[in-house]
Amino acid sequence: xxxxxxxxxxxxxxxxxxxxxxxxxxxxxxxxxxxxxNEADAKSVVEKVKAKGGKxxxxxxxxxxxxxxQKMVDTAVQEFGTLDIMVNxxxxxxxxxxHKMTDEQWDSVIAINLTGVFYCMQCAGRVMREKGYxxxxxxxxxxxxxxxxxxxxxxxxAGVIGMTKTAAKEMGPKNINVNAIAPGxxxxxxxxxxxxxxxKQMDAMLPFIVPLNRKGSPLDIANLALFLASDESSFIxxxxxxxxxxxxx
Length: 249
Hints:
Blueprint: E1 7-10, H1 16-27, E2 31-36, H2 39-51, E3 56-60, H3 66-80, E4 85-88, H4 103-131, E5 134-139, H5 151-171, E6 176-183, H6 189-192, H7 196-209, H8 218-229, E7 240-243
Parallel strand pairs: 1-2, 1-4, 2-3, 4-5, 5-6, 6-7
């Protein structure tokens, strides 16, 4: 097992990509902290893990709260003895054309997608520095390169890339790897909630914008996160890997 006896925290893990990462990690032997703002979703994932014979604990709350983030880290250490892996997946969108964007749309996205990642890296990093080992995987986005109607989201995800590279430089001497994944068009609840006509138009455009001609799945991201969280990636740090079917070639 590639993560046997490793302890991981995954934020935004109540569904979608986060849930996919949790389940993949558990299959490879990890003990996990499931974080989400939705208590029912978090507990549901914990029950799925236990049904597979894995070990999981839910910590409900927002990554915008330093107290919640510290509770995640403390729970990992108290329940499982340590912390090896931190996956920063929690994120939201509040889309709008720039000249119509409200302060609330800007502030909420930056708080969760950017400040939340900082809190998680900082709190988890203190434990990892002390033990001289750690894997941090940040979930960015292809939108980091810019996307109409997402100036807040693009800014936050570009910021995640900058933080990833800085943290990799600072934490490398302590044997901590910090990398980022930039997903493309992944078939999650976020996409499924779009109007049917929008989804139809998107499917029609797939052959022209995604060379592999399909939407990605949470498992596609989870498999990459597993690699970056495992010792197979021990000489990789500060990198951003686009998992997008070739969309940003």
